[in-house]
Amino acid sequence: MASLFESLSAEELEGAIERYEAEVAELKAQGIELDMARGKPSRAQTDLSRPMLDAVSATSDLTDEGVDAANYGAPWGIPSARRLMAELIGVDAKNVVVGGSSSLDLEFEALVHAWVRGVRGGTPWGRLERVVFLCPAPGYDRHFAMTEHFGVENVAVPMTAEGPDMDVVEELVKNPEVKGMWCVPKYENPMGITYSDEVVRRIAALSPAAPDFRIWWDNAYVVHGLYDEDDELLEIFGAIEEAGGGDLVYEFASTSKVTFPGSGIACIAASPADIADLEATFAIERVCPDKLNMLRHARYLPDLAAVKAHMRRLATIMRPKFELVDERLREGLGELGCCSWTKPRGGYFVTFFGPEGSAKAIVRLCRETGVTLTGAGATWPYGDDPSDSDIRIAPSYPTLEELGRALDVFCACARLVCARLARDGRAS
Amino acid sequence: MASLFESLSAEELEGAIERYEAEVAELKAQGIELDMARGKPSRAQTDLSRPMLDAVSATSDLTDEGVDAANYGAPWGIPSARRLMAELIGVDAKNVVVGGSSSLDLEFEALVHAWVRGVRGGTPWGRLERVVFLCPAPGYDRHFAMTEHFGVENVAVPMTAEGPDMDVVEELVKNPEVKGMWCVPKYENPMGITYSDEVVRRIAALSPAAPDFRIWWDNAYVVHGLYDEDDELLEIFGAIEEAGGGDLVYEFASTSKVTFPGSGIACIAASPADIADLEATFAIERVCPDKLNMLRHARYLPDLAAVKAHMRRLATIMRPKFELVDERLREGLGELGCCSWTKPRGGYFVTFFGPEGSAKAIVRLCRETGVTLTGAGATWPYGDDPSDSDIRIAPSYPTLEELGRALDVFCACARLVCARLARDGRAS
Fold first, then answer.
1. CA triplet A167, A168, A174: central angle to 5 degrees?
2. Do the chains contact at A287 and B70, CB–CB below 8 Å?
3. B5 Cβ contact partners less than 8 Å away, ≥ 6 residues apart
4. Residue A193 needs a FRET pair 20 to 30 A away by CA distance; which of A100, A228, B19, B204 works?
């Protein structure tokens, strides 16, 4: 990108840096303390789900289509909750297991299954010398941390505006040591983009060398659009069928950002043979998941239409925040010509791209000035953004007013860092 | 044991067998269908916890001592829930992590931690050639199934009326391949006995060859006494301190059989260094557990006194069932002289001991006659009870009337099997 700073003389640039330093110093003096680090719903959002807490009360019928939700049993979830989650992600309920309150937990459990038992009778991954996961980056830091925790080798795959660079993916899966790939296909964390039909079809048609290769398809933001016109994600299992079938995907979703973070319900979906394979581990792990919380959810949000109506109410809180991000970044950084950012139509994050070598410095300066951001590089495997240029912005938690102030700090810090970089670049 | 059948002539014995066969045939004709297989609370018991479902409602304060239970955060549990579980098991709340609804799940996660990461920096168990667990038997079938699932070698250790045979345990832990031991120290599943102070002290003083040896101390029935006079279990971490300290135990508990099975809250406690070590894995696994369910529990059962009052109400339902088991077994089998059974003062199970070689036959005959029991041998590693003599009886789920009928079937079947065994023994 051509930067405004290139058109300035050395003296003009020094003058700009001095003005920017004064701005940052002034903001710092205000003693701001704001957090834009995590994709955490605001209090106003969680309050909208409060009525759900009355959906199961002391006098409620605690059975669900003959299943007693108040006792052991139904290890794969109560019928109505399995149907609800299946409808959300567009698959058949018989291929869905609802379990626990966290999709991250289910992703971990699926990894444990592969690690300890092996996928469909394959060698347990824990017994292999080398296991590689493909990590479209920037991506979700907790995903990468999980495979890193297991000693898996995370390999970054470039992201495009349509999803992972499939030329790279198709090449890499020829290596039988490549056992998996992380994907957040809709309103991707942190770019906010949705995989194009073309990318989903190429994913569905992959022929990995490893028969136990699986994609951890984390459909975290499946119903999390901000506008009436929602991004359309091609349903992956249907796409696999069209491509000739096969066992390729573990899909995950949860209501963590629909109802209560941490107290939602989560699901895993897979092919019939894969689900049966996974159930063998789940059955060892627990007698059954919390079915009363499933009942609470299924009664409050009986179907996709109810979920969508609920999400529209949530979107009225989120949409102005996303729009404020774009507005303030345009106002504060637009004319510099060296910064860009995504304009997601859903999800929880905006990704900001500064000039090469700017991200760590901006995040550090923001922190010193009172605004906490996700660590620069966190969205890359091993925290290593090779160009040190992208920053994840999570606008959901602060109020609109706080967010505005945080963005002012962000812009002031980014301006200063960009100007200094321009000077240093000129000097070297 | 001297059997009544020994005093009978061959003809008398044949006559008895014919009478017993007629009895069983008559019961079978009644088309009974009863289940005494699992330690599952009855509907009357779970109904007693219904008021808890109103403890958190749409209008409740959803914070707990400053922690927002309705959002992400507090990965080790909300303060009041950690304090509650700590008080239940008699340890310091700072060494307790409350997470999820299932202690079995936490036991699995601790095993995953050891398997994938290693205990306190030790070699991950998944990388070792051989990992051995000690399994006091009869014990809890789901425990043994879990280590078996990981490929651990389960080694049976004889149970005594005071707990595991510690002479055997002390000898076995000299082998550095021995990495763990399963224990249900109070109202043990399935014998119902509580470890004596002497046994707990010897456990606390163990010096295993493996520095990463840990005991999975499943205090599942810590508040599950049936009588005012509760069995006293020596608190294990205190005993370890007295023995000179060390990191030896992961302790587990839950409210699955206090409130709602599968929808309770569960905890793990360990030494400060061990808890920090485990938290490194838990932090990777999920953002946070379901804290609204913790809030529900902590408000309905704010302290140990409240839990004990609640358990006394539950005991009024359970106690008559345990007493009926003893009464019917005495009436139906007492005079035979070849059967015995435990008389637990708490917990969920009674263990029946028949003559050698009788258990599988009794369980099979019961099933044919309409009563499902836990499979014979299930309480032993690999399902292998070397003397084929013990049977787990789970009296909690049926009503008192159903239980009476199931016990009549059990006694009739046991009588017939014992008489046939006496005849076969005489013939050989």
1. 100
2. no
3. B13, B16, B336, B338, B418, B419, B422, B423
4. A100
Query: pLDDT at position A59, please?
Result: 98
Are the C-beta atoms of A19 and A26 separated by less than 8 Å? no
A164 cis-preceded (ω within 30 degrees of 0):
no
Reported residue count of chain B is 428
What pLDDT digit, counting tens, does each position of A244-280 carry? 989 999 999 999 999 999 999 999 999 999 999 999 9
DSSP designation for B193: -
Comparing CA positions, the residue from B91, B65, B90 lying closest to residue B78 is: B65
Residue carrying structure tokens 């006659």: B369
The two tokens of residue B280 are 């490194």
Q: In sequence order, which ranges of A30-114 are alpha helices (DSSP H)?
A: 43-47, 79-89, 103-112
Taking the alpha carbons of A173, A179, A184, A189 in that order, is the dihedral positive or negative? negative
Residue B129 banded pLDDT, cuts 50, 70, 90: very high
* pLDDT tens figures, B137-192: 999 999 999 999 999 999 999 999 999 999 999 999 999 999 999 999 999 999 99
Question: How do residues B46-99 score in pLDDT, each as one tens digit?
Answer: 999 999 999 999 999 999 999 999 999 999 999 999 999 999 999 999 999 999
CA distance B215 to B135: 11
Give me the phi and psi of A119, to 5 degrees please.
-85, 120
Contact residues, chain B, for A71 at CB < 8 Å: 40-41, 43, 46, 260-262
CA separation for the pair B324, A127 (Å, rounded): 51
Of A286, A208, A277, nearest to A248 (Cα)? A208
pLDDT band at residue B3, thresholds of 50, 70 and 90?
confident
The residue-averaged pLDDT of A201-221 equals 98
Chain B residues near residue A265 by CB distance under 8 angstroms: none
- CB burial of A18-29 (b: ≥16 within 10 Å; e: otherwise) equals eebeebbeebbe
pLDDT band at A425 (very low <50, low <70, confident <90, very high): confident
Compute the distance between CA of residue A395 and CA of residue A38 in angstroms, rounded to an integer.
9
Mean pLDDT on A151-174: 97
The rounded distance, in Å, linking the Cα atoms of A151 and A158 is 22
CA angle B356, B359, B365 (to 5 degrees): 135
Strand pairing partners for A35?
Answer: A372
| B262: nearest CB among A43, A150, A287 | A287
- Report the b/e string of B360-379 with b at 16+ CB within 10 A: bbbbebbeebbbbbbbbbbb
pLDDT of A121 over the 80 cut: yes
| Residue A324 burial (CB count, 10 A) | 17
CB contacts of B284 in chain A (<8 Å) are: 108, 142, 145-146, 149
DSSP one-letter string for A210-255: STT-EEEEE-TTTT-BSSSSPPP---HHHHHHHTT----EEEEEES
- Of residues B127, B260, B289, nearest to A262 (C-beta): B289
Domains and CATH numbers, chain B: 4-46+308-427 (3.90.1150.10), 62-302 (3.40.640.10)
Chain A residue closest to B107 (CA)?
A: A285
Q: Which of B246, B306, B260, B312 is nearest to B87 (CA)?
A: B306
Average pLDDT over residues B1-29: 93
The secondary structure of residue B335, as a DSSP letter, is: G
For A116, the closest chain B residue by CA position comes to B150
Phi, psi of A23 (to 5 degrees): -60, -50
The predicted-structure confidence for A339-392, as pLDDT tens digits, reads as follows 999 999 999 999 999 999 999 999 999 999 999 999 999 999 999 999 999 999
Spatial distance between the Cα atoms of A19 and A32, rounded to a whole number of angstroms: 20
